[in-house]
Amino acid sequence: MSGDPENPEHPERAAVAALADDFLSDLREWLAIPSIGVDPAHRGDVRESAQWLADALRRDGWPEVQVWDAGPALPAVYACWPAEDPEAPTVLVYGHHDVQPVDPVERWRHPPFEPTLVGEELFGRGASDDKGQVAMHLLGVKAHLAARAAANPAVTIKLFVEGEEESGSPHLVPLLDDHRADLACDLVVFTDTPLYARDAPTICTGQRGVYGAEVVFTGGTSDVHSGRAGGGVPNPATAIARLVAALHDDRGRVRLRDFYTDVVEPSAAERADYAALPFDEDVWLANSGGAQAVSGEEGWSTLARVWVRPTAEVNGIHGGYTGPGLKTIVPADASVKLSFRLVPNQRPEQVAEALREFVAAHTPPGLHAEVIPLGDGAPPYAADVAHPAVGALKDAVEAAFDQPVRFSRTGGSGPAAILHDRLGVPVVYLGATLPDDHIHAPNERVVVPLLLRGAEAAARLWRLLPERLS
Amino acid sequence: MSGDPENPEHPERAAVAALADDFLSDLREWLAIPSIGVDPAHRGDVRESAQWLADALRRDGWPEVQVWDAGPALPAVYACWPAEDPEAPTVLVYGHHDVQPVDPVERWRHPPFEPTLVGEELFGRGASDDKGQVAMHLLGVKAHLAARAAANPAVTIKLFVEGEEESGSPHLVPLLDDHRADLACDLVVFTDTPLYARDAPTICTGQRGVYGAEVVFTGGTSDVHSGRAGGGVPNPATAIARLVAALHDDRGRVRLRDFYTDVVEPSAAERADYAALPFDEDVWLANSGGAQAVSGEEGWSTLARVWVRPTAEVNGIHGGYTGPGLKTIVPADASVKLSFRLVPNQRPEQVAEALREFVAAHTPPGLHAEVIPLGDGAPPYAADVAHPAVGALKDAVEAAFDQPVRFSRTGGSGPAAILHDRLGVPVVYLGATLPDDHIHAPNERVVVPLLLRGAEAAARLWRLLPERLS
Ligand SMILES: [Zn+2]
Ligand SMILES: [Zn+2]
């Protein structure tokens, strides 16, 4: 790290440095709680994780701390620290404390719930996604208060940490609606996205949405021997394959009706930034499941393909006999799980409707088709990079990381659009993790110095915002 | 049954009628032995089944009976009953005594190895495929001897009953070669095919061949989250689907190189017979796994599609996540099991080669393709309907069934072509079972009066052959 922590130009950095040891030991305590939200067996752990966070916030001095555990949603934590100035803007920090399952557990080098520090890296489930980044904000608020030597922050800071993000936030909308007054704010700071790279810190400006569905084709009531009927009846597995093959045209574009009609391209500033980011294809492929080649929609770079272009992917396909050897049947049915990554301003409902039409048009005579939505999907979101909050964020991050930062996006999905829609305010992204943190995989880790930089950026942002949003 | 069994024009019928009770009790004994050849746990039962048959043949007076149980093949039974006249032709009857597995066993109305007579139907695994038809031949020989009141048949009759047909006859070629002298003959009578229908008895004149292979496309070394790489890397499941979709053209023809080059169409006599056979599409569909519509190569009837036209079918397809809900991954790999039904004079080796080329041409950059043959396949076979043995067979069957019979085929596969190739003689088909006997399925049965007619047809054939083949 460059910059002198004792330099009065860097009071936030000095404060973060002074609090770093406590931060790390607190985070390790929290990471030891296996709050696997998607696994009902870990329901108690999710509750314990929420309680741990509430206790930590109270220890830190947050005046108002609540655990929301009344409805069907897994427990969420809410806290509020009002600004000195009642006219100051209100920001809501969003994150989540539920974590992904740990299978295959045998591939972890350290037990997933025994957080282990190896050099600068802290290994453990949730270290990066998302407990590490929530803890980063707790540190950021403490550093902000220490740096300005005040009992209250420069903006009213609210914290909303849900427990169902990894389950697709199924109860987020009612939760937001039930707590509308508590959550009222001028800006959401969404904290669940990575930097582009350690040597290229960036500000994320958007996430893709997603819509998933399963298509099932059924022919007969049972498999039939192909010696009897092969060549004489429709084969549901062949039909599913033809449906999938028809999903893209020769240029790699998705052939659902009006799929591209509402697509908004990123701003010129963002496009220029994407092109200027360092991109090593071999490294990117190695970090993409060891893929052997890039591929996709004609006329777009790999980063554009995975950040700002919508897609159709087969997540799973199944039909007939898949055991050892040959079994010469015409299967009774076959199915495919499809998911579509969406970009602004595509809507999951529109894609769902177009998919139903597409399946109907590609169902051969003699087969019955069923389209089963897999959840409601998540709309895409992109921040307006011309908004003054983005300018403040950029200044804060550049100061904290001691270098110019560019814009990036992430190809994954999250509830940013829901927060935007229900709360009626802009959402900006502040994250300090890395794309190769192995989130959702064995050996999840976080790079601790980046979390400290992120906390410093947050502390700086709280200082900058009153003037920038006025 | 019409026809007077005491009428001297029907001595074979009278003999069959006199022997029918013993026939049935013998068959029930044999069917009680669970000779499931594909299941190593039933190896002893296959041996017991072979021994039962050898004992039954000795009881019947066959002068030479052997159990071939030396090599890797499951035990086969060989027997020979020389003709009175050393110049008389030699026929070899082919059948098998191994049976299919019985899963799902809970769907059997009677235990599969407790043969149960309900009216005219005998239920039990192997009743139709193929013990019932082998037993029919034992009865046929006894009736032939009784009808001509002789100690020896009019032709030298050899019997070869293998134990591995349901396993794809993997050791048949070496078995035939090892016993070349024993098996030398002028004609093979192949007994493992059905009549067209109870009210439309037919002579089968051919079976399709088969070639099966699995195609595997591999992209990365692991699945990758579609939020990271979706839209930017090739998806093996999509590629497998495109490969399958490309296998047929718009008219339902298979697009492998030279796939149709060697196809020989059936004779005009056969085509006329197919068109004249009663065909109820609803019944056919109901008996074809409950399929809802016919479908297939343009310009051909359903019977032609499943009897004399080659096909490509997906028997199984698999890739990615197929559990409950959505998992937004790009799978690391995907695979499809394909099988091709072949007709004369297609060769499995040629199709295997064309498939390899086709897969290579349809492997997108970044994916690795593997084509794994699932066995050697079986060549197709069709009898020359102008051969005098077919004429004799037709006369024998028409006399036994008291009606004109037409030619039919079956869409399944068997070792007829191998017998033809290795023994160097024509193969004709004599069967007396039905397509809806539920072979390879729960509640397999055989219609006993049809087996008696079949035995009579065999007995008549042995009487007719010396003159017809001279
Ligand atoms: Zn997350
Ligand atoms: Zn059989």
TrEMBL record, chains A, B:
One of its GO terms (biological process) is proteolysis. Pfam families: M20_dimer, Peptidase_M20. The keyword Protease applies. Residues 205-365 form the Peptidase M20 dimerisation domain. Transmembrane segments: none annotated. Keywords: Hydrolase, Metal-binding, Protease. It comes from the Bacteria. GO terms for molecular function: metal ion binding; peptidase activity. This is Acetylornithine deacetylase/succinyl-diaminopimelate desuccinylase-like protein.
